[in-house]
Amino acid sequence: MRAAKHIESWDDERASGSGIIVTLRYGYSFDTTHDAVRGFDTVREARESTRRKNIFACDCAECVTNQGETK
User: Which uninterrupted H or E stretch holds 3?
Assistant: First the structure.
């Protein structure tokens, strides 16, 4: 799967009993606060939640300072 530009990493850890862990790049958030890492139970849930329409711009100090870098 090709990741969208706002996704830093997508780790499927379901085989080890975890979920799908998605990390967004600096400058993006899952809500209006700096929430850039989230776990999901299914691929469908992760894909829906990471669609661009569900991602917010983040201009917190951490994102502003580190934009362009990886997490």
Answer: none
Q: Output Rg (C-alpha) for the chain, integer angstroms.
A: 12
The whole-number pLDDT of residue 37 equals: 96
| pLDDT at residue 71, as a whole number | 57
* Spans of all domains in the chain: 7-62
pTM for the whole structure: 0.84
CB contact at 8 A, 63 and 37:
no
Map tokens 């090709």 to a residue: 2
Q: What number of CA atoms fall less than 13 Å from residue 22's CA on the CB side?
A: 25
Q: What is the mean pLDDT of the chain?
A: 91
- DSSP for 43-69 reads HHHHHHHTSGGG-EE--SHHHHHHTTS
